[in-house]
Design goal:
- The model has no long low-confidence stretch (mean pLDDT 80).
- The relative contact order is 0.10.
- With 169 residues, the chain is mainly alpha-helical.
- The two termini are 28 Å apart.
- It is built from eight helices and no strands.
- Helix content is 70%, strand content 0%.
């Protein structure tokens, strides 16, 4: 795990250096611009922005997986609501691989939030680490996971991709 974490850390550093997070931000802002919504042809650099965005999000997912599974503190995470990345599925440059990557982004962000909630040392110090408080957090986590699964099951059902039933499993 330490070697993998080192590789992901190096990849994150390189991604920050070449501006991959900015590509994600630019693609998201273009998605909501009125110019893009009226245009019939995609912007010329959209394919490049989508590739950079996929790379950045994949690095974040790998970082989340390695840190959450090891019980570490996350070094980087998405700001805002992670579900916003779903709008990128509507972009002309969206690919089948996005139906695999986007749910992983959401799931691992959710896992990181659950892990941070359950392992927060301030809860124990403040006396909020009672069995009932922990069970409330676990119940909230189960609800969040159920909502995530139901949302993506609907997305796969609405998809015309022949692999959607396999992805749903």
């Amino acid at each position: 795990t330490s070697e993998r974490s080192l590789l992901v850390s190096v990849a994150m550093r390189m991604a920050l250096t070449i501006g991959l997070p900015e590509a994600y931000d630019e693609l998201m802002s273009q998605t909501f611009s009125s110019e893009w919504q009226r245009s019939e042809t995609p912007m010329t650099n959209e394919a490049m922005l989508m590739r950079k965005t996929r790379t950045w999000l994949f690095i974040l997912v790998m970082g989340h997986i390695l840190h959450v599974d090891a019980g570490d503190i996350l070094s980087l995470q998405l700001t805002g609501n992670v579900r916003r990345c779903r709008v990128l599925l509507q972009r002309p440059t969206s690919a089948k691989q996005d139906l695999c990557l986007w749910p992983q982004i959401e799931l691992n962000s959710l896992r990181a939030r659950i892990q941070a909630t359950l392992s927060d040392p301030r809860r124990v110090i403040a006396g909020n680490g009672s069995d009932q408080a922990i069970m409330d957090d676990v119940r909230d986590a189960i609800i969040d996971l159920d909502v995530w699964f139901a949302d993506w099951a609907r997305i796969y059902d609405a998809s015309s991709d022949p692999q959607a039933p396999w992805l749903k499993l």
